[in-house]
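Figure 2 data, in text form.
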Amino acid sequence: MATISQLMRRIERVNIADISVESLQETKTDYLDWQKEQLDQGKKKTGGNITPFYKPATIAIKKRKGQPTDRVTLKDTGFYYDSLYMVIQKSMRTLATVSSDPKSKWLLQKYTGNIMGLGGVYKRGYVSDLRPVFQQKVNNALKLQPE
């Protein structure tokens, strides 16, 4: 068991920014899964629906493919979802979802901002995935035994 002064010295040496980035990197698959689920449910990070809704021609195509037509999912072949990745900018303390799909810029313009990034239940879900990873890293850095 550490004394209070030993624990204080450990705390002073912990780099929370580094631990945060490591935790985010370790859970990026979880983050992207939540992002894809949010998109599949037709939700922006603000909680609103992705709009404008599909045009009748697109609805007909999606029906033939057996895809949802009651919401905008931005999913046709799955390539867009597969092209998503997480960018962590430690210096700016930001996290972003971006796409390598060439049509990404067009989709973001058509469906306005706020379609990328997590909000609501999706953000809470990701935080519940992230929290134990972060806590374990802090415990390790402080040389604490898990409860």
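Caption note: The first helix runs from residue 4 to 13.
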